[in-house]
Amino acid sequence: MRYLHCFHFLSLLLTGSCFNGLEMCCVRRPSDHSGTGSAWRNMKTTFIILAFLSTTLNHTHGNPLITLPDSNLFVQLDVAPRWIWRGVAYSQGPVIQPSLGYAGKKITAIIWGSYSILNGEYHELDFTLEYKPVEQINIGFTDYFGINDSTKLNQRFFNLKNSSTSHVFDFYARVCPFKNLPLSFYISNWFYGADKDPKTRKQYFSTYMEARYEKQYHDIGLYTFVGATPYKSFYFRQAGIVNLGLGLTKTYQIGKKLTLPLKVEFILNPSSQNVYVNAVVGIR
User: Fold this and answer.
1) 123: part of which helix (H) or strand (E)?
2) Which residue intervals of the chain are DSSP H helices?
3) Distance (Å, whole) CA 57 – CA 63
4) With 172 labelled, which of 39, 42, 98, 111 sits at a CA distance of 20 to 30 A?
5) CA distance 241 to 210
6) What is the spatial distance between Cα 240 and Cα 207, in angstroms, rounded to a whole number?
7) Model confidence over 130-161: pLDDT tens digits?
8) Which of 199, 159, 216, 227 is nearest to 20 (CA)?
9) Quick check: 66 and 262 in contact, CB under 8 A?
10) What CA dihedral angle connects 1, 155, 7 and 239, to 10 degrees?
11) Is 45 left (phi over 0), alpha (psi -120 to 50) or beta?
12) Which residues pair with 129 in a beta bridge?
């Protein structure tokens, strides 16, 4: 698990670094595949995905995948070489991350998923509802549903028993306190569900806090962030900084209605001493 974080909902859709949380202004099982046969199947799957995206871009005649004129509804499809979120890697290979939702002035609702092209890897489906009571504050709830997916797996989606559910319930808040300074603060707490100490089975109540600074330079967005956990939790075995880095974003216009958002991030987890460079390409 990771997951919706202080970018706005658009960042979430771009990341995978899981809505990476809705955050702008503002245990994984290793792959079971081995050998040339699995490698060839994975390669073929990747080629099929790329061919599909290429065909879509070349044959939509300037129209989006789903046309929603004058509407707050949206759909998006993101592809990334890996899924990195809050300083943690959730996949060993490429992921496809579809999303759809509603973005109004006060209410944002999103359904977001992440699926690895490798069979048996961790997959996730998130449901987020966010409310903006005032211009500089957002509060929200996310239900993270995570599984090691396969066609024969009974996902038990409706199992909400705290001791055995695969859901994790999250309450979060994002504050942008300065009108003229693009600095935001975000806090998230997983208060129910599968977020448990694997040895004691006690609830972690994992908390993640992040400060983010963003700046726009012409048509390129630049942002830096630092995220930490205040105590032992899912993120690390003790208090520490778990997510430190910077990113660049750029959106290309394709035709009149289709956009191609791009994002590249450098991510360092000082606590685990892991480092990543990741990229996300979207179609919206």
Assistant:
1) strand 122-134
2) 9-14, 35-59
3) 9
4) 98
5) 10
6) 11
7) 999 999 999 999 999 998 766 567 889 999 99
8) 227
9) no
10) -20
11) alpha
12) 109, 141
The answer to whether the CB of 126 falls within 8 A of the CB of 113 is yes
Torsions phi, psi of 154, nearest 5? -85, 110
Q: How far apart are CA 212 and CA 226, in angstroms?
A: 7
- Tens of pLDDT along the chain (284 residues) come to 443 333 333 343 333 343 343 343 443 333 333 344 444 444 444 444 444 444 333 433 443 444 444 578 999 999 999 999 999 999 989 999 999 999 999 999 999 999 998 877 889 999 999 999 999 999 999 999 998 766 567 889 999 999 999 999 999 999 999 988 999 999 999 999 999 999 999 999 999 999 999 999 989 999 999 999 999 999 999 999 999 999 999 999 888 878 899 999 999 999 999 999 999 999 88
If residue 19 lies in a helix (H) or strand (E), which one and from where to where? none
Q: Residue 101 is encoded by which pair of tokens?
A: 């939702």
Ordered by where they begin, the domains of the chain are 9-283 (2.40.160.40)
Q: Structure tokens of 88?
A: 């943690």
pTM of the model: 0.74
Structure tokens at 91: 């996949």
DSSP for 212-273, please give it.
Answer: EEEEEETTEEEEEEEEEESSSSSS-SSSEEEEEEEEEEEEEEETTTEEEEEEEEEEEETTTT
- The length of the chain, given as a count of residues: 284
Q: Render pLDDT for 202-225 as a digit per residue (tens, 0 to 9).
A: 999 999 999 999 999 989 999 999
Question: What is the SS3 assignment for 57?
Answer: helix
Label the pairing between strands 258-269 and 167-175.
unpaired
Sorted by sequence, the CB contacts under 8 Å of residue 275 that are 6+ apart come out as: 266, 267, 268, 269
